[in-house]
Amino acid sequence: xxxxxxxxxxxxxxxxxxxxxxxxxxxxxxxxxxxxxxxxxxxxxxxxxxxxxxxxxxxxxxxxxxxxxxxxxxxxxxxxxxxxxxxxxxxxxxxxxxxxxxxxxxxxxxxxxxxxxxxxxxxxxxxxxxxxxxxxxxxxxxxxxxxxxxxxxxxxxxxxxxxxxxxxxxxxxxxxxxxxxxxxxxxxxxxxxxxxxxxxxxxxxxxxxxxxxxxxxxxxxxxxxxxxxxxxxxxxxxxxxxxxxxxxxxxxxxxxxxxxxxxxxxxxxxxxxxxxxxxx
Length: 280
Ligand SMILES: [Zn+2]
Prior knowledge:
- The chain is α+β, with helices and mostly antiparallel strands and 280 residues long.
- It folds into two domains: 132 residues, N-terminal domain of MutM-like DNA repair proteins (Alpha-Beta Barrel), CATH 3.20.190; 136 residues, Helicase, Ruva Protein, domain 3 (Orthogonal Bundle), CATH 1.10.8.
- It is 25% helix and 21% strand.
- The chain has nine helices and twelve strands.
- A four-stranded antiparallel beta sheet has the order 1-6-7-5. It has a four-stranded antiparallel beta sheet with strand order 2-3-4-8. It has a two-stranded parallel ribbon with strand order 9-10.
- Zinc ion binds next to loops.
- The site of zinc ion (ZN) has 7 residues, from loops.
């Protein structure tokens, strides 16, 4: 699943369609097999002739703004992504769902193999901010200055106290944009064992963790995300953040710092990787 940094890389890569005039937004024939797209074409027709003014990211959501008040909210889901189509006869990826056609190339295609992606039209920007997962979203982990005081307040909530930090970090109400990869990597950078209960973390450790999250997510954007499950940016670039992962996906490999074997455990049905020697 693309995490905050990958979604940010998609947003950056889609900058080339900002300012372009839309010919039409087309829901593909394939998309009509699914309830969430079925018979929705007329709703998308209202954007024909309009211009994309801005593409924003909030957590793992993309928000398309136009030269009209309606906005489109898009979530990549488990496997969704965008591709910029630079040629007329370009071979399309499988599972094409939504095509934004412009007066001039490139066009932008949303494809989504596992079909967990979302497209929703809202009457205006304020309405999208009221969408429950956005309204309840925590700190954006990719803010330029990570609000450490707010992080300390949020992590101190009662319902986190007796839970393991490795599963709490996936709660988008704490920090938005962290998924499975950057959860493990942030804990490794902060030298914190993922099985620790939140209530046992000292103030110093909590501060260290906040800074580690921010550093990890920013670094991932710098490297254009992690290319697992064939993630590519819409302009075809592969991410290389996986090359500096310390623990994620490295079960039984030796820790770079101490040569202890990296462990994999399961927390809330999701895997967590860590070094039992470096992370206490
Ligand atoms: Zn180690």
